[in-house]
Every structure is written in structure tokens, then in C-alpha cells.
User: Fold this.
Amino acid sequence: MASNDYQKASRLGMKENRDMEGRGEKPGLMILPGAPEKLAQRQESLGIVEIPAELIVGTCNALRAEAFSASFYPAAGANTEFAEKWTNLCNIHLDEGIRDPIKAVEYLNRYYVIEGHKRVSVLKYFGAVSIPGVVTRLIPYPSEDPEVIAYQEFLNFYHITGIFFLVFRQPGQYTKLLKLMDRDPKEEWSVELTYQFRSFYYLFRESYLRGFGNETQVSRAFLTYIEIFGYQASVHKPLRQLTDDLGKIRQEIENQVGQVESTVVLEDHTKPVVRSPIPGPFWRVPTKVQVAFIHEDSAQLSHWTYNHEYGRIRLERAMGDLVSTTSYESCDTEEKIAQAVEDGVNKGVGVFFTTHPRLLLPSVKQAVLHPNIKVMNCSVSTRYPSVRTYFPRLYGATFVMGAIAGAMSQDGRIGYVADYPTCGGIACINAFAQGARMVNANARIYLEWSKLKSGDGLFQLMDRGLTMIYYQDRLREYDRPGTEEGHNLALIQCYWGKMYQRLVRRMLDKSWKQEEGGSSAVNYWWGMTQGVVGVMYSRRVPAGTRRLVGILRDAMHTQKLDAFYGTIYDQCGNVVHDDEIPMSAQQILKMNWLSSYVEGRIPDLEEFLPEAQEFLSLQGVGRYGETP
Assistant:
């Protein structure tokens, strides 16, 4: 009976109101946050559309807000005129269906009802996926608000697809979706493609709601799913397969939807694993670990791969018969990575290191498909709990390099060429400036980039007459302005062998299990303190400066010196750090501002080369993608 449905619906509404009050929130419907003429630079009529039910969140009439709970359940008592009208409408829905469309306005992908509140309430109660409505869209004024930026991206997406049920509220996600689908961001979709996408999305939605139940996060979960499993490989999967896949990536979904902060491990408290020379009654031989390295390139062609291969050999030599290793080179496609993992698993490999950030997403997929193996990717600040990441913490070393440059510069003009504005990469630039300024009050850092479409910034700095330039982890002094003749003064070294030894020891002494973060991803970010990063200098560095470098290295190693000391201003003159408490790892990783000592800027994504843009989509900070 409809009266019983009303009683059940009103109990749900009262419970939702009590829960909101308990959390200190105001119960009832959201209200359109202002008059339409003040919110919108213009209005656009959409006609009659099928509005996704989960996007109908509020009302344009403040007087109706308290008549419903936030989910449109009725909040009035059973013996009221409101209850009678709701019950009559319920009978109509059960007998013949509600046909009259509601009237609503859409603002930032939220729909606010003008007319038809009870129709929405009844249809939502019975689980309607969409509700027909006559909609007026309010186009917001331009703003730096991330949600407004994301909405402008939605409008572009809507223009080529006609799809409005897919809602992202962070910039860059529509672009990421189109890229994952291998679609041109300006090409209009065919009717067939739109139908295929809609069918797949709603099948995914049904599967997701069965397992997770949060209808407001379906779009974000959908993006995470196709990041891991691929759109083309998944579009024709049956409901049962989607449900099985979602079960495998539950932690990934919870992390992305809940925006769980990553766990950054800065210290290494493990001890070397040793064998007792005299076996006793409680002596146990540590389990042997079989480790495989998967490289994107070959060691012959790539200096990066060569260094990791050298680290692999150092690992095997240092740990003796506790570890056996193998490697797979030139795994530059998802298929090759899958083959390497499958081959390694068949040979008994339990730990896989994938040694480039571009291998992150294929690593996640292999980790969820093979839950009994451990997978680590060489990148920083991932948000995928199925894999762990490791990367050298370089800003301490660039601080020391900056001090060398500041001490040796004749005019205080020092060049710095960065590759990408990545997580932790901006911190290296600012730390370099801090080090230079510590020893030279006139030091100014001139920043350029090496991966821009306009060319390598090194030559721009040389054309400007700079002779002291940091480039590709080394500090170089040129003999005279505009020439390529010069001398290396200092070099940053990453000791990958030590990094891999410390990571493998965690699996032997059970530290790995203790560091699990649930739905939080675990990132190992080690630097000079842990002995995995060092600074070497040449004999051309004066004796006094060499002595200074030794003091700074020791201070960094013992954590008596912090690269980000004192009051720090950004380029706009804002105080970004003025506290005796050191910056947290997350603050340093997410750093997206430049020091007042730096001349230069952080370019827009479109200014970088295509391969750099792809890299920034994985490791970029701030506006280049999702903040870590």
C-alpha cells in the first residue's frame, strides 16, 4: 500500500535528518546558492532531458527545503496534507507511471527543483535512475575555483558528446577520460559511440552500486576503473565480470573516491638481515626472495635503465643467496608488461620492480590481477594502494648544489633547467634557491624548462649570458657566455642499489606488513638521510667550498639542517612558510609555487611536448592533474 510506502520513506527521511544534525550539518534539501541572474553570466534552455536522479540535490524554493531530507525523502508526519498528496502521487506512479516532467535549473552539474518536488521524492524512493525534466542551465562566471574550471571542461565534453550524466568536479578528469578512450578532445561523438558509452556506463553503475552504494561517486569510480582495465578492453564486459573486477580494485576505488592521503615513508628503520654463524634452536634461515625488474627501455639505450640495472646487480651481490633477480627490458607496452609478469610468476617471482613512472598504471593492473605478488613502481606519490612506490628525495641534494653555485657565482646569476613540474620537482627548484641564497645574498635563480615545445631552456639561459647552470642533476660552469665549453662542478648521485636493498629487507623482516596503509597508498621517499642520495664535487670546487659542502652534507644526513628554513615568500610576496615546525612531506610533494628568489614561471600544460604532457598526467603537481 502507498500509505506504508510513505511511512517507510518518512522514517528514512527522519533518520537522514538526525544523522545530519549529529554531524553538525543543517538537515533538508540544498538550496540554490543565489538568484539565477547573480550566479550566471547567461542562461541556456535544455528543453526536456532525462536528469540523472543522483544529480537532483536541491530546491530553488527555500520554503520547500525542510519538507524533505537531503535525499528527497519526505520529512512531514503521516497525518498531514503533504503525506496525503505524496501517497496519491505514489498510487499514480504504481498504477500508470508519472509522466509529467519536473521543472529545474542546473548549476555546476547540480539540479535544483522549481516544480515537482514530490514527483522527485516518489521516483527517488522507488529507485529511478533518471527523471524527466524541463531544465534551464545556469552558465557560471569564469573563476579560478577548481569546480568552476571542471565545469567548463564538462561543457566542452557535453558539446561533443551530448552526455551530462558523467560528472567530475576536479579539473583534468574529462581530458583524462578522453585520452583513456583514445578520443580526440575536439571530435564529435557518433550516435553509436554515445549509445555504447551510455550502455557501458549504466551497466558499470549498476555493478558499482551493488558493491559500494554511493551513487554520487559513480563517475569517479568509473574513471578509476578504466584507468586500470582500459575502456576498449572493458566496454563489452558482462555485469558479472565488472562486479568481479570491482572487487579486485576495491582499495583503489575507496582511495580515489575518498581522496585518502598517501602514506609517505621518510625513514628507514629496518636492519640488515644477517645469518647467525652458529645455528641454534631458535635460528631460522630467512626466506629467499625472487625479484624481477621490468624496464621500459634497454640498458644499452637508456642511462636511466642502466642505473637501475646496476642497482639490481648491487642488490644481488650485497644480499647474496637471500635474493635472486632477473630483469625484463624494453617493456614499453601493456602487453609486454603483462607477459613479463606472467613469465616471472611462473618462475616463482614474488616481487616486481617496475622502474619508470610510465609503467605505473600497467603495474596497478598486474597487481590486482595477481594479488599474491608485491609490485613496486619507481614514481612518487601514487594513490593506488595495490602498488607501492619508491623514489629518491632530491631536494636536500639540490639545496647543497645551490650552495655550491651561490658560493662560486661571480655575479649571483645562476641558471636552473628543470624537466617537468612534478610532485617533489618544484621543491628541488626552491631548495636550490634556498641553498644559493644562504651563502650569497645576491643570488638569483633563472628558471627554464627542457621539455617545452619552444625548445630546451639550457640554450636560452646561455643566450642570456649565464655561465653557472644546473642541468640534468649536475652543476656546470661555462668558460664564457654563449659557449658550450665548460666544466662539471658537482653531480647528484642516486644509489639505486642501496634503495633496492632497503626495500627488499622490508619483505624479509616483515616491516612490509606493518607499513600497510589499508586504502592509503604507501610511498617510500628517501634521500640523503637514508644514504640513497649523495652529492659529488670536482677538484675545481675551491677548498673552502668543499669544506662547506662536507658540513652541509653531514647536517643533511643527521637532519640538523632543513632545506626550507626561516620565512619563505613566493613570487607574489605571500608568506608560504613561517613556522619553526618543518614542512610536512605532503606540503613538499604538493609544492606548486616558486620562491621569491626564482625568476621564471611554471608553464601551462599545452606548452610541453606531448610525451611530457603524458608524464605530467601521472606525476604532475597542481593544475596538471589531480593533486596527490
In short: The chain is about 40% helix and 20% strand. Residues 167 and 219 are 6 Å apart (CA to CA). The first strand starts at residue 30 and ends at 31. The first helix runs from residue 2 to 22.
